[in-house]
Structures are given as structure tokens and as C-alpha cells.
Amino acid sequence: MSSNDLENKAWSPRAPSERLLMTLKMQGAQTSAEVGRRHGITGEAARQQLLKLHEDGLVTEERRSSGRGRPSTYWHLSEKGQARFPDTHAALTVDILRSISEVLGAEALDRVIAEREATTLAHYLDALSGCTGTRERLEKLAELRNAEGYMAQVEEGEDGALLLVENHCPICAAASFCQGFCRAEKAVFQNALGGGATIERDEHIVSGGRRCTYVVRETVA
After folding, report:
1. Which of 30, 59, 73, 76 is deepest in the core (most CB within 10 A)?
2. Distance CA 50, CA 21 (A)
3. CATH number for the domain including 140?
4. DSSP secondary structure string, 163-188?
């Protein structure tokens, strides 16, 4: 599973084990029955595949009690399993950022982030130029982010809000080193959507979340 695979929105895992890992990446913790339903197999067949992934250290299990009967077993990706969805050129990226900060100073790193922000925004605005309405702009934005490897999708939120969900962060190492990248991306999203909507981050991968989610609400005229 290469970074090129993840950056290609048309990529589709072939091996059953890869498909199960993708499901846990995209959906979060699941029972074997839930995994089975998603893949058209029995819960027991899914459990056997999950046990094999557990033996390989790619998934972990968690018992959850619902207050009735036996606790349910939920499966989720382990740290090793998360590593199957690689952070693009992570070590090299962090080394370069550290060198910029140490040799040229923090202000130089801020300028690099600002330049990336401006370039990204220009690209997004060009791509969204034919979109009308917040939903259409958000769906196009998710399409752009998905093509960049973020495994992005739009979901319905509460009280009429929309959610921009990113299940993977291909620049996680860079964002962990300098959270200016995350601040810049949120600003890009806000400017790309325009004044007709507000956007707030809810979940955050760098802060320990399973995914990044942004709550988008249309502003009242």
C-alpha cells in the first residue's frame, strides 16, 4: 500500500485484509458483525479475518458493555495498522521543516506555511469557481481533498450542519511538528467556502482523534 495509492481517489484495496483495514480506517471501531455486513460475509468469517490481523499486530480489540448481556468486542486499527496508511515522506518533511526553523528562524517557517496556504487557496478557488451554494462547494472541496490523500467525505451533521470529514492526514508528521499547517488549512477552508458559511474544527488527528472533522454551517443573511 503506497502513498501514491492513498493519493489516488480511485484506489481500491484488493486483498480482503486490506479491505478490512480500509473499513476500520474509514468507519472507526466496528464489531465483527458490522464488518461482515459491510463486506457481504458472515460475522464469523469477518471475525476470523480480524483475528488474523490481530495476530499480525494490525488491529486491537476492545470490550464494550452496553449494560445488557455480554460485552461486545469492537475492533480498531492499532498503531501498526495506522502506519499502513503512510504519512507522505514523513521523516524527510520533518527534517526539512526543522532545518528551516533552526537555520532561518521561526518567521521563515511561517512564511513557508503562508505561501503554501496562498497557493492551495488559489487552486481551490479556481476549482470551486463553478459551484453554487455551500453544499456544492463543500462537496467539491471534499473531492479535491480526497484526491490529495485525505480520504475526505461530506456527512450530515446536527441541526442542519454539514461535516467535512478527513479520515487520513498525509501530512500528519509535518502538522505534528508545526500546527501552523492545521491553522492554515482551516483558514483555507473558510476562504474557499466564502462568507456564506462558517467552519469549526471538531475532531483533530494531530490531537489524538481518529479523524479530522469540520462542522460547516450556513450563515444567516
Report:
1. 59
2. 9
3. 3.30.1380
4. EEEES--TTHHHHHH-THHHHHHHHH
Report the DSSP beta bridge partners of residue 105.
none
Domain count within the chain: 2
Can you give the length of the chain in residues?
A: 221
* Ranges in the chain, pLDDT < 50: 1-12
pLDDT of residue 11: 38
| Domain-terminating residue out of 82, 117, 135 | 82
Whole-angstrom CA distances from 88 to 29, 73, 84 are 24, 32, 11
**Which pLDDT belongs to residue 174?**
87
Q: Are residues 63 and 111 in the same domain?
A: no
Q: Which residue has the cell 476492545?
A: 62
Provide the pLDDT for residue 46.
92
| pLDDT, position 10 | 35
Give yes or no for a contact between 20 and 35, defined as CB atoms under 8 angstroms apart.
yes
Query: Which residues form the domain of 19?
Result: 3-82
pTM: predicted TM-score of the whole model, two decimal places: 0.68
Same domain, 101 and 196: yes
Statement to judge: residues 99 and 21 lie in one domain: no
